[in-house]
Amino acid sequence: MSVLDEFRLDGRVVIVTGASGGLGAAGARAIAEAGAHVILTGRRENLLRARVDEITAAGGSAEHRVLDAVDEDAVATTFGELAHAVGPFDAIVNNAAQAHQAAVLDVGKADWDRILDVNLTGTFIATQAFLRHRRNDRSTSVVNISSLAATVGVRGQAAYAASKAGVVGLTRALAVELAREDVRVNALSPGYFATDMPGDVLADEAATTALLRKVPQRRIADPAEIGAPLVFLISDASRFMTGAVIHFDGGYTAL
To answer: What's the CA gap between 223 and 26, in Å, rounded?
Structure first.
C-alpha cells in the first residue's frame, strides 16, 4: 500500500454529528471525497438534505438523519437502525456543539447546563452509541472536535471553554481505555474559521483585526481546510495515534 493509499476511506462508514453546516458539513464533504459513506446528523433537516445533495452530486455517498445530540434514547435507536441498514461503523466525528458568549456574571445555570449538555455530554452519548455498533475487525476512530478555547483563555466563553476542555479530558481518558480494543480516540482543536459560530467577531472589522494579531498566519481559515486533518485522523495514516490533541489554528496556541 502506498502512502497516499493509507489516506483512502473506501468502504468505510463514518458518522458526522452537527453536520448541517460549518465545519461539520465541510468535514463530511472531505470524508466522502476520500471514499467513505458518510452519515450526516443534526437538527435542521433542510440543511442536512442540502449537504447530502452536494455530496452525492459530486459523486460521493451520503445520507442524513435528523437527531438531537443530547437525546440519549434517540441517538441509541438511530445508531442501531443505521448499523443494521448500512453495516457497522468505522468512525465518528463528534462535531455537534453550541457557542456561548457572555460575561461570567451573566451566565445563568440554564445557559451553563445547555452548553455542557450539547458540547460535552452529547459527545459522550454519541461515542457510547458508536462503540456499541463499531466495526470490530479493524481499527476504528473517534474524532472529537474541541477548540482553542480549551487551551487558551477567551473572554466571555466560560461555559464554552469548560465544555471543550472537558472534551479534551474525555478524549484522553477514552484513548487509554480503548487502545487495546483497537479504537483510536483523538481530538481536533480548531482555531477561527469563517463559519457562523464566530460570526459576531468576524462581522466586526475592529474585532477581526484584533483577532488576527493573535494568529501568526494572520488569516481566518476556510471551512474546507478542516477536511484534510479529519481524513488523516480517520484513516490508517494515523493508526499509531491516539489520545492526541491537534491544534489546527494558524499558530494561535503557539504564542
So the answer is: 6
